[in-house]
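Step 1: inspect the first sequence and its tokens.
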Amino acid sequence: MNTLAGRIIDARKQLDISKAELARRVGVTRATVTMWESGQIESLRDDNLLQLAELLNLNPRWLNSGKGERQAVTAGITADEPAASYTFVTRVHGPQLSAGGGRVSWDHEEIGHSHAFRRDWLARKGLAAKDCRIVSVEGDSMSPFLRSGDVVLVHIADQAIRNGEVYALTIGDELRVKRLVQRIDGSVEMHSDNSAPQYAMELITADQLEHLKVIGRVVWRGG
């Protein structure tokens, strides 16, 4: 198999896994799997590569490049990709982070592990895996920066508002993702990247701030 698309299709069919099931188990959208298998994406992100390789019992290096041994050695990571180089970040399942109408209660979600990141990448970003969460996005208010079905890495230890950055937050019992700007008077502007009229800027005034909880800053996004 000379292409990433061909290697994915071949391995998926050998295991009799549908595109929809593959997408669900790796944590991406079905449209993303279709893009992989049509050749529109020629190289996988580290986290998607490791999850896909583990699911298909393949060597990540072979899956991504066609080089090296085809089969995985242990846990989807071979001697070429030592496990010590990666760490898993907790993924929060259940109600999704809303880029639209909102979902309720971060606290009621089920915790699991599905995404691995290179330790050196996290270190360069000043991130610790224990202080990060992977969350799915629903809705299109943050398009094109975020699209429905994307996942984001949220740094929950970074809650101080930096004007213009994107944050996961709650308003009352709604879970949201928005670009924030804090005014001099303490009020907070919540901006959507989608310019459609229904996504106009929302203002949380100083006397309403008790209803706003910043969960953390979005530091990575993936489709």
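Step 2: inspect the second sequence and its tokens, then contrast the two.
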Amino acid sequence: MSAHSSPCSILSTLGVQALLLRLLPRLDPPVAASAVGFGTTLRLREQITAGARAQLAILTDEAIRDLAARGILDGQSRRELALSWVGLAVRAGAPHPSIATLPDFLATLRALPSIVYSQSGASGLFFADLIERLGMAEEIRAKAMIIPAGFTAEPVARGEAAAAIQQISELMAVPGVEIVGPLPPEANAPTRFSAALFADAPPAAARLLDAIASAMTPAALAEAGLSPP
């Protein structure tokens, strides 16, 4: 490992945090939660580019391919793990607004008194682009809580905002909220999460990656709000 090695064995996107923390203790041998460093793909890619190293990375597929092209990750080891969709959540017990169709979703966006999304997460970047394309950016930003990173549902659970936008798997990681559902197809896009070994990873890292990929069964993915790639 380089002088910039992380104390963690895995650097992982928040999109699979809840699932990974559930699966790691069940592996053989089990892996401690402290072995994982979580963050948004954007921030982790910046850290890795600056020299952070671990044994394997779990990021968006785009980021994995980019880092492999630079020789930082081993492109031959790339494994697609999961697909995630963007959804909306409200505080537990609050009415569920309609978002089933694009007109319903647009009406809900306009009616919500406040909404939270992330500045650096994949879903936050997607949503910021979406409201630009819909011609609603100024209107939505005027009532939005835009957090730098992390789980957007946390302010909703505390009663600080009416609704949160994020990957459904990330919304599900926060107690005290309820998932209304995925955004309508015309206003949604899947994020593909993949994993790859660092170029200088030890042989044991390949076994860890195999174990994680095998543990991410369709049932395990569904329980975490994800789907098979």
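Step 3: confirm your contrast with the notes below.
The CA atoms of residues 123 and 166 lie 5 Å apart. Strands lie at 10-13, 36-39, 56-60, 79-84, 86-91, 115-118, 144-147, 163-167, 177-182, 191-197.
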